[in-house]
């Protein structure tokens, strides 16, 4: 009997281990808080290239993406974070006003809608940064346009994010698998959308790079 590492069972176990290790790397690199954006960007890139694409190694790919995208990912993340913080504060304040019975409390629902939009924006922001080299302004603008233009998919991404958060809250041990699994679902959805906006030259160049890395 020959010991075959290419057996589907071993391949699947290898993927599970890679997902767990990537989740751990992401969590550790998110601890400074200010690095959450670039860590999430590196995670998406690693999922796309290694977990789904089967090219390269998790640690090397993750840390290379972390270094290469630090400025490009951190600045948009800080803009997004400020927008989230302002809207959360506005929602909390108007909620208290709503509880008093004032008509001004109706703004609470407006801020809730705006919060959902900004959360959808975040779902695209880090993924877009991982896949496209652009200016900070263009990254913020294009990711926002994509989130609004593809609203049904954007809402699905929010549902996936919420489900991941609930599962981690209920079973904290799943923290080592859920983050990568959620990003994997993101990649399955977003890559179909991203490719619609890529030129034939971009697609051909990407296929060429894939062959070189195999």
Give the helices and strands, then pairings.
Blueprint lengths: L7 H23 L5 H17 L5 H11 L1 H30 L7 H25 L4 H14 L1 H20 L7 H17 L5 H14 L1
Helix pairs in contact: 1-2, 1-8, 2-3, 2-4, 2-5, 2-8, 4-5, 4-6, 5-6, 5-7, 5-8, 7-8
Mean pLDDT: 89
| Number of helical segments with 4 or more residues | 9
Summarize the main sheet: none
In helices, the fraction of residues equals over 70%
Determine the strand fraction and express it as a percent band. under 5%
Q: Class by helix and strand content?
A: mainly alpha
Number of strands: 0
Molecular structure report:
- It is a single chain.
- With 214 residues, the protein is mostly helical.
- The protein is 80% helix and 0% strand.
- It contains nine helices and no strands.
- α1 (8-30) packs antiparallel against α2.
- The chain starts with 7 loop residues before the first helix and ends with a helix.
List keywords for this structure.
214 residues; mainly alpha; 9 helices
How would you briefly describe this protein structure?
This protein is mostly helical. The chain is 80% helix and 0% strand. The protein contains nine helices and no strands.
């Amino acid at each position: 009997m020959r010991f075959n590492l290419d057996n589907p069972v071993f391949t699947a176990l290898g993927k599970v281990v890679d997902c767990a290790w990537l989740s751990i790397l992401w969590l550790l690199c998110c601890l400074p808080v200010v690095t959450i954006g670039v860590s999430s960007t590196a995670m998406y890139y690693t999922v796309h290239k290694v977990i789904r694409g089967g090219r390269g190694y998790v640690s090397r790919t993750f840390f290379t993406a972390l270094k290469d995208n630090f400025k490009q990912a951190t600045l948009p993340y800080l803009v997004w974070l400020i927008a989230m913080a302002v809207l959360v504060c506005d929602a909390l304040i108007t909620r208290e006003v709503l509880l008093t019975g004032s008509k001004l409390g109706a703004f609470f629902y407006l801020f809730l809608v705006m919060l959902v939009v900004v959360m959808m924006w975040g779902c695209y922001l880090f993924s877009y940064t991982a896949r496209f080299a652009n200016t900070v302004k263009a990254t913020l603008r294009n990711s926002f346009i994509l989130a609004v233009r593809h609203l049904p998919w954007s809402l699905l991404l929010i549902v996936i994010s919420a489900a991941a958060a609930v599962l981690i809250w209920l079973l904290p041990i799943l923290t080592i698998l859920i983050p990568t699994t959620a990003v994997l679902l993101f990649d399955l959805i977003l890559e179909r959308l991203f490719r619609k906006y890529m030129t034939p030259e971009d697609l051909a160049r990407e296929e060429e790079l894939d062959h070189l890395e195999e």
